[in-house]
Amino acid sequence: MTTDSLADVEIPSSIPVIELWGQLLVPLVGDITDRQLRQVVDTILMRIRERGAAGLVIDCSGLWTVDSHLCAALGKLASAARLMGVPSVLWGLGPDIVLTLQTLGFDFAGIHAALSLETALERLGLRLAVQDEEEAAS
Amino acid sequence: MARTVDFAEPHPQTPHTTTPLPRGIAPADSAPWRQTAQVEVLLARYVSSINARVVVERARRVLRDPAVVRVDEADVFESALRNSVRMFLPEARLAEFVHALALLGNAPPRPRDLRMETEDDLRAARLLTREMCQAMGAPSFVMQRVATSVSELGRNIISYTPGGTMRLEPVPGVTPRIRVTAEDRGSGIPNLDHVLSGHYQSKTGLGRGLLGVKQLMASFDIKTGPTGTRITVEALLQ
Fold first, then answer.
1. Which of B141, B209, B211 shows the shortest C-beta gap to A96?
2. Residues linked to residue B184 through DSSP beta bridges, in sequence order
3. Is B138 within 8 Å of B171 (Cβ atoms)?
């Protein structure tokens, strides 16, 4: 049996952790490997210990597929962050992914979810205030 | 069918005079492109067969020969189809149908055999699954199920066995399917019935993954013994 070459599969880089008004934002994009996942969980927990964070937003809008392993890892990340005093909000799972997860028996009961990035940040206590232009000038 | 179909032609055209040509195709090119019957079978995967018939019946009025779509008629036929199908399909599914229409009659993608030993093999398997599902015109919810199943089966192999292989293959037919075969050289699953009963709680998640695959796919076949396990699953492309 011949096996297909894997040379054309590019080596993935690390997942960024973005600081945003005291919140940590983690955008998950494309196909996440176990290695990337372990790395980003380490980075997040270290960052929380060193500089603290008001909340953690896990952005799943760029994921094209999930499996039980990825779900379990996200659940673990959220509960680890909670143990360090940081609440998490998940957002951006598409309808196909959500239905697949339900069939798999995952309900993400321990994780808060939001419909958009804005509502995710609001859940974590951020409020948007638009400053009046005149007020800003004075 | 609850909706009323408006039988007025949205774009009254006279097919024999000025038919817009698909880009890049010479005016002389009037080679047959698709049989309208094929299109109807495809469409019946997206809407009810009665609606599929009505829609194709209407769209083929723009053709010179109602049974055959010629290359230079492809664009006009497609827009006529879109105008009618829009009543029955949401925009995203409509795009999937148009994509599948473009692939209709193309040779199915070749089967792929993959080594399954490391995380990178697993990642490659997921990406190839996506590629194959797209090449077969599978709707995105089907791709999602297949990709997740491939990931679960592959993970069982790389986590709990010395290694194995996976095969992804298209199964053409009236209801086209995609088949995934996962084979490993592990020591088998001793408590298989218990695992598949749904009462099994594993610390590692193995049982949940396998049962999940069984629920995600249309068919599930497993043979396990002390020298290895072979799991074959299939998903319908609709």
1. B141
2. B164, B229
3. no
Q: What pLDDT digit, counting tens, does each position of A13-26 carry?
A: 789 999 999 999 99
Q: Can you say whether the dihedral through the CA atoms of B108, B110, B111, B115 is positive or negative? A: negative
Residue of chain A whose Cα is closest to the Cα of B153: A67
Tell if the CB–CB gap between A65 and B147 is shorter than 8 Å.
Answer: yes
Contact A105 B208 (CB under 8 A): yes
pTM, full prediction: 0.74
Contacts of A76 (CB under 8 A, 6+ apart): A41
Q: Which residues of A touch B144 (CB under 8 A)?
A: 65, 96-97, 99-100
Q: Which of A1, A2, A6, A66 to mutate to test the interface with B (most CBs of B within 10 A)?
A: A6
Q: What is the percent of chain A with per-residue pLDDT over 90, rounded to a whole number?
A: 46
CB–CB of A6 and B216 under 8 A?
no
**Around A51, how many Cα atoms within 13 Å sit in the side-chain half-sphere?**
12
Q: Mark yes or no for CB contact B208/A68 under 8 Å.
A: yes
Bridge partners of B102?
Answer: none
DSSP letter string, B96-120: HHHHHHHHTTSPPPPPEEEEESSHH
Residue of A nearest to B152 (CA): A67
A88-91 and A55-63 strand pairing = parallel
Query: Smallest Cα–Cα separation from B127: which of A4, A131, A92, A132?
Result: A4
**Overall average pLDDT of the B49-57 stretch:** 92
Please tell me whether residue B10 adopts helix, strand or coil conformation: coil
Mean pLDDT, residues B16-42 taken together: 66
Q: B169: how many CB neighbours lie within 10 A of its CB?
A: 17
What is the per-residue pLDDT for B73?
A: 87
Is A64 strand, coil or helix? coil
